[in-house]
């Protein structure tokens, strides 16, 4: 499978990265090189193999339902949450107006 | 099959409905962080670093949310998947801080199940109908955007971000607005029985994505569907279906095609419109969340979930009919809501104990009281009723007096009215206000003797076979006793004297 | 007095404990060395006060007769992928420039709790994507090493290139690294130092800017195996905030170190004999075998048949995860916001991310987005995860025959900065020997073996069973003792 400029533009838009024509054109052969190379995976016989889901045999640990048990994963720290915001007003994050 | 049809110019159309209900899981903390889920807090005050998707933050699932989803699955008789997994649904939106929602696409925790909606002739549901449920998966809620606080900006509040939801996906088994309404009500009832969701639709604890398509009656193939998002009341769900079905028929009959799209419901106008912000969001690039391992449920955990399930609406209704001898109507009314059956069962237990009879022997009396007598009195009083006075103890006392024949039905209401208004012990009230029946045979006998003596002609007619006159004698006696005679005693004495 | 900046972790720790010198003297020496080495561009920000404060705390603790932590008095460099409270954390990207976390990563906190101090935040490949340290928004990092007789700036490897450069240049006794597909081992090999990536889950990922979650692992980089053992012990540990964290005790790796490999079998995977590998690398591998044999190990040939497919699988899985992990950099809650006049929300995303991400990051996000997009998921991502399962199975089968695997760390020595700039694929091949262990989540280490004919360091790699960092470290120690690699780059900065 290979990509053309239009496809790259579509992916870039899906990934929300603005790209000019030059950039798109530059990327087409680069991405195709990489894609062509990774396609050798198609040679591998994976009959009956489950895709890997846990690197090290380990299962999901669950947390107790306790509010603010650990300050590092607790709520109630609005100032910290907003500290780096490019636009924070009245306790909210501000973004350009959205029309739904 | 419902007979709901849209009469078009080219013929009759039927509608096919599937619902994706998002139900907020009852839990103290969020699905993947320790922040509180409480409703109505100050903006961004219940947001952890995890919920705000700060760099390097990681999700750790809340056991209670998993437990509630499993219990819900069991309540709809669904297959519980012992191996499930969280996936990421990727899209960009300001209410989605991570740029993805952690959800379950490929391996949901709950598989196929079902619930039954009850026959309801009024609504055009001729018989009980089983609605299939495709799956339940657990996922994160998004934050909230506010558009009306600033001229050029929208404001983002992440308090809801990361709250646990169950997405309950029905099969496209519903064919009328009424069926869809009944489905949502029944589902809500089950969730509330189980305690996995408070079902509070105003606060957004339950909201439905409504999938609607239409086809010509008898057609095999499904039409193109639209999905109207986040509809937050039963009535609105029905309105959306009504509107969408008619809109789609209009589009199709005027030669157009229905777009498969996401729509928004406008409460003010009762109409739907295309949702602009989600137009291009259809490639979600789902893949397993690499921050989370597969979720494997142990047998012990499942056994605990099952053991903790309460009696569910259908089972309770059947038991009310079969064991308590209630009418189907009463059984349905009493089991519809958690609060209703809760109050009923308490009152039943207290009353049975007070009277000293098995519950089954007093159930009908208690059910009638709870469903019609008591609400009637409360309604009649309006503002004056202080429901805090209406304790199970007080009500049971009234019912017991009635059972013993000490008071009549009318007196029961009068006493209850006083209890509601002023409080107090019903027995004392009955004594003080003279609200008791006379069961004293002497007084009644004297009254009857007098009536019989004054109506010799009627006595002869009765004895000659005019049975109907018995009612006349009863009426006269009651009148003479100013309505306070125990009817059973009156009947007995009359029968004895008239032979 | 000894030149303090020549000392490693163990020597500093022991010297501070013994009172041979104060932690403050150590911190001051390294702070000066850091300040004098700006040409390496190893640091994005320096934090001399942090180092001094930790040193003073260590000196005071000693004066008060308190027990000193495992890293007390040791100032280290912190890869700028670890969130540090109140100290700019950028992942070497423009999009996070100026970002000051209001939290501390678990690993860095563990190090501070053990008494370490921070010299500064180390440069790296942007979002840890790169193998040469040429993708940082804050400029390339230069290796302190140069080819004999040339002045060309050489690559310190990547992505932990600031870490490797600083440790090799003796401006930090040790540094943290992260390894997603070789990012600790390859730079360690390029700069003649040691670095270990522990078993996936040993070190918490909480507070580490994510690249590819199923692969990312933190680890120490230092100049000796002992130093790595000490520092890894301080970094590792169960963290309930990371659902993939291993709920296991951290062994006393340092205490158990032994270069005696009697009874151990060392596997030599035949598939690592790849075309394009430098002869000098192959020679060093042979030498490594001889050293381990000398240490008492038995050498056995093994096969890891899917080795060839590890790298392409990695270049699907890692970008896929990254494309999603990096979606949060959107200009809403922190970091760069590029909002042209009149732009809407989606424009703001696209502009911000275009301005904030470097070329390599964009390339990988696009690849990742593509392989996950509708219709391609099975052919790419799912296939890659199946191949990954096979790569892991290869190792599992190998453990029936050996206890640890010896292989080269990289196919070549370091190269001049800029020489592979337009050739991403060749660049990716740098990690061909490192990636299989990453895909399988195994502990793996690089130790310096020798210099090649250009006078550039070469590293040997040891890969161990899950949770068996000890054997990896032991085999590393055996090599270290025999290689006696005491070369240091000549100071030019
Ligand atoms: Mg939906
Ligand atoms: Zn959903």
TrEMBL record, chain A:
Pfam families: GatC. Keywords: ATP-binding, Ligase, Nucleotide-binding, Protein biosynthesis. It catalyses: L-aspartyl-tRNA(Asn) + L-glutamine + ATP + H2O = L-asparaginyl-tRNA(Asn) + L-glutamate + ADP + phosphate + 2 H(+); L-glutamyl-tRNA(Gln) + L-glutamine + ATP + H2O = L-glutaminyl-tRNA(Gln) + L-glutamate + ADP + phosphate + H(+). The keyword Ligase applies. It is an enzyme of class 6 (ligase). InterPro entries: Asp/Glu-ADT_sf_sub_c, GatC. Its EC number is 6.3.5.-. It comes from the Bacteria. Allows the formation of correctly charged Asn-tRNA(Asn) or Gln-tRNA(Gln) through the transamidation of misacylated Asp-tRNA(Asn) or Glu-tRNA(Gln) in organisms which lack either or both of asparaginyl-tRNA or glutaminyl-tRNA synthetases. The reaction takes place in the presence of glutamine and ATP through an activated phospho-Asp-tRNA(Asn) or phospho-Glu-tRNA(Gln). Belongs to the GatC family. Heterotrimer of A, B and C subunits. HAMAP family: GatC. This is Aspartyl/glutamyl-tRNA(Asn/Gln) amidotransferase subunit C. It comes from Erythrobacter rubeus. The gene is gatC.
UniProtKB/TrEMBL annotation, chain B:
PROSITE patterns: GATB. It comes from the Bacteria. Its EC number is 6.3.5.-. Keywords: ATP-binding, Ligase, Nucleotide-binding, Protein biosynthesis. The keyword Ligase applies. Residues 346-498 form the Asn/Gln amidotransferase domain. Allows the formation of correctly charged Asn-tRNA(Asn) or Gln-tRNA(Gln) through the transamidation of misacylated Asp-tRNA(Asn) or Glu-tRNA(Gln) in organisms which lack either or both of asparaginyl-tRNA or glutaminyl-tRNA synthetases. The reaction takes place in the presence of glutamine and ATP through an activated phospho-Asp-tRNA(Asn) or phospho-Glu-tRNA(Gln). This is Aspartyl/glutamyl-tRNA(Asn/Gln) amidotransferase subunit B. It comes from Erythrobacter rubeus.
UniProtKB/TrEMBL annotation, chain C:
SUPFAM superfamilies: Amidase signature (AS) enzymes. InterPro entries: Amidase, Amidase_CS, Amidase_dom, AS_sf, GatA. Residues 29-473 form the Amidase domain. The active site is at residues 79, 159, 183. HAMAP family: GatA. Allows the formation of correctly charged Gln-tRNA(Gln) through the transamidation of misacylated Glu-tRNA(Gln) in organisms which lack glutaminyl-tRNA synthetase. The reaction takes place in the presence of glutamine and ATP through an activated gamma-phospho-Glu-tRNA(Gln). This is Glutamyl-tRNA(Gln) amidotransferase subunit A. It comes from Erythrobacter rubeus.
